[in-house]
């Protein structure tokens, strides 16, 4: 059973044929509505908060603080393209950031080896998720919820409910604290990963095959696509990205604690789901995911600078998700009606 369906709703050339310029704008506006709204929010907050919002310090803070969420959103996007969902992105990062520090403090393992071990273990958990979904035929939501809860329990066991504290080497801390051309390096990780995933998903046969699975798994099988291998693969990739994000989080916090991590689950999923409402509405896409994370980061930063209370962030995340999905559903129904009644697309011919 699929958890997510991928069906593109962006208007095609044939959809726009015969429409007036105003109608064309109306059809294409939903495609770029989220980026446009993000720009409008930036302008609004910059005008209302000229001394704090449009500053290098605030931009650097947004890029650094939301990089972990962006990485997890991209990790969630990969299996969503194939019509699956991976909840271990939120549970797993709890354990991965703890282990990244624990391996160094408890066993004296070098930071480089510790990072590679964490990423490898996260990939193996992704493999387990893929096997549960494709071999054991467990729904991806249930399978990843189960394995994620186990990972969280292991994190509690490793930490014994206490913080894992160690003197960490400068090389490990530099994974988060380095700046290149004034840009925090976590933001560059996100940019590099976005480019790689975009090229694979939009320009390579591999990406087209995964999209085909998400759109219609039976048709993909009939066309000779090795569905089982691809599904297992997307969970492995998701796990690897999550493991890397856990290492970055450990370098940022400099301590390991089991009560940190679950707070990333909702924002990461919201970012990925928001991505389905823009660029390629109705279809999970990498650039849309980044737009989703960006509007959350900008909106929350501006509201907090206005003096928003501590509950503003989850409230904004949830409200934005509900409104965006509702608008996307409305656009989908509107397009379906227009396809059933082509006469709505343009005024009837009055000649003759």
Describe the structure.
It is a single chain. The protein has 16 helices and 4 strands. The protein has a domain at 70-262. Strands 1-4 form a two-stranded antiparallel ribbon. Strands 2-3 form a two-stranded antiparallel sheet. Mean pLDDT is 87; it is low at 345-352. α5 (67-81) runs parallel beside α10 (185-203). The protein is an all-alpha fold and 352 residues long. It has helices at residues 13-16, 21-28, 33-48, 56-65, 67-81, 88-107, 111-134, 140-159, 170-177, 185-203, 205-215, 217-222, 227-253, 265-275, 286-305, 312-340, and strands at residues 164-165, 179-180, 183-184, 255-256. The radius of gyration is 22 Å and the shape is globular.
Question: What keyword list fits this structure?
Answer:
4 strands, mainly alpha, 70% helix, 352 residues, 16 helices, two-stranded antiparallel ribbon
Radius of gyration: 22 Å
Tell me the distance between the termini. Answer: 55 Å
Biggest sheet statistics: 2 strands, antiparallel
Task: Give the quaternary arrangement of the chains.
Answer: single chain
Q: Identify the strand order in the major beta sheet.
A: 1-4
Shape: globular
């Amino acid at each position: 059973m699929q958890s997510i369906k991928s069906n593109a709703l962006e208007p095609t050339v044939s959809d726009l044929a015969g429409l007036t310029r105003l109608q064309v704008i109306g059809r294409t506006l939903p495609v770029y509505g989220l980026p446009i709204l993000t720009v409008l929010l930036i302008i609004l907050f910059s005008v209302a908060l000229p001394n704090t919002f449009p500053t290098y310090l605030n931009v650097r803070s947004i890029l650094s603080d939301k990089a972990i969420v962006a990485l997890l959103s991209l990790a969630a996007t990969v299996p969503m393209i194939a019509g699956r969902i991976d909840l271990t992105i939120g549970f797993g990062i709890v354990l991965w950031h703890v282990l990244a520090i624990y391996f160094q403090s408890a066993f004296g393992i070098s930071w480089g080896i510790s990072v590679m071990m964490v990423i490898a273990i996260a990939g193996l958990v992704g493999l387990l998720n893929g096997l549960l979904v494709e071999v054991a035929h467990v729904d991806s939501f249930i399978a990843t919820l189960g394995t994620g809860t186990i990972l969280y329990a292991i994190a509690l066991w490793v930490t014994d409910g206490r913080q894992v504290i160690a003197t960490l080497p400068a090389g490990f801390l530099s994974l988060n604290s380095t700046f290149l051309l004034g840009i925090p390096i976590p933001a560059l990780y996100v940019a590099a990963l976005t480019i790689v995933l975009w090229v694979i998903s939009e320009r390579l046969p591999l990406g087209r095959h995964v999209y085909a699975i998400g759109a219609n798994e039976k048709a993909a099988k009939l066309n000779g696509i090795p569905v089982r291998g691809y599904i297992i693969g997307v969970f492995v990739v998701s796990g690897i990205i999550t493991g890397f994000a856990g290492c970055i989080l450990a370098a940022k916090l400099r301590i390991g604690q089991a009560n940190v991590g679950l707070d990333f689950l909702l924002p990461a999923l919201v970012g990925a789901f928001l991505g389905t409402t823009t660029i390629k509405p109705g279809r999970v896409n990498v650039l849309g995911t980044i737009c989703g994370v960006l509007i959350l980061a900008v909106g929350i930063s501006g509201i907090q600078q206005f003096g928003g209370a501590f509950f503003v962030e989850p409230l904004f995340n949830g409200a934005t998700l509900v409104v965006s999905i509702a608008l996307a559903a409305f656009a989908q129904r509107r397009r379906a009606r227009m396809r059933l009644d082509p006469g709505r697309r343009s005024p009837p011919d009055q000649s003759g």
